[in-house]
Amino acid sequence: MTASTYLFVPANRPNRVEKAIATGVDEVIVDLEDAVGESEKDVARQELAAMKPSRNLCVRINDESTSFFDADLEAIAGLSWVKAVVVPKVNNAVQVERVLEMLEARVKVLALIETARGIRDADAIAESGAARLLFGTEDYASDFDAPPNHKLYDYARARLVVASAAAGLRPPVDGPTLEVTDDEKLRTDTEFSRSLGMGGKLCIHPRQVPIVRSAFESDNGAQDWARAILDGYEANDGNVFVLDGQMIDAPLVTRARRLLDHYSS
Which residue has better confidence, 151 or 165? Predict the structure, then answer.
């Protein structure tokens, strides 16, 4: 099943890595960027180089406009356990292509889109070789004269969902809920993200992981619905038929197949 939970861990807090893995989160992101202050960047990179995690992880680097970018990539290039690099503030396809070239495409690139320019060029970024698109909600909001809110984010989310689908990528990953002790808000946010076609959510605290996973893995009877459609389609020799009062035609059959593929992958 497609990864739906991504948990950040500061690179300068290596003792938290195995604790993060123990949560059962789909992907751990060791963070060299926002979770690490400027005075700790070199230390964080040294801690990263010394890590020997029990499974392969992702690493978020600093963006290319900073003085830390090259050193971050150089450190990652020598680590066999890095499965993907999260590239922040991706504004165009060239940024993804450059990182893939510098790392000789040895690891996947997760493109973190968090600016108006990045949303504008989402189609090209999705076609650039990125493995998946991630949405950085808080930085994105800073591009506008408006407070962070769902209405501000909805267009951006829709753009990422469509760009990902058109490029054949897995559904994009939504930004985090910052209220780490408000479980109900997290659940509501996650269910809303899923309703828009997002396929995962960034987490900033271990307690968020099971709630996010539950919201994305719960199918609410969708698999039974899909199997009933495919059974009916076969029984009717591929012709249009009616199931529980609903007309079932080719688009719904395609949707049913995609849904079952999603849960079996």
Answer: 165
Query: Which of the four pLDDT bands, split at 50, 70 and 90, describes residue 222?
Result: low
The residue assigned the tokens 């992981």 is 209
Measured from the Cβ of residue 263, the count of other Cβ atoms closer than 10 Å reads 13
Buried b or exposed e, range 147-169, using 16+ CB within 10 angstroms: eeeeeebeebbebbbebbeebeb
102 and 182 inside one domain: yes
Together in a domain, 231 and 125: no
| CA distances from residue 77 to 31, 80, 81, 101 in whole angstroms, order as listed | 16, 8, 10, 11
CA–centroid distance for 124 within its chain: 18
Total count of domains within the chain: 2
Question: 82-106 burial string, b = 16+ CB within 10 Å, else e?
Answer: bbbbbbbbbbebebbebbbebbeee
What's the DSSP call for residue 3?
-
Dihedral of the alpha carbons of 146, 153, 119, 30, in degrees to the nearest 10: 100
Tell me, what's the pLDDT at 235? 85
- Asked if 62 and 25 touch (Cβ cutoff 8 Å), the reply is no
| Three-state SS at 57 | strand
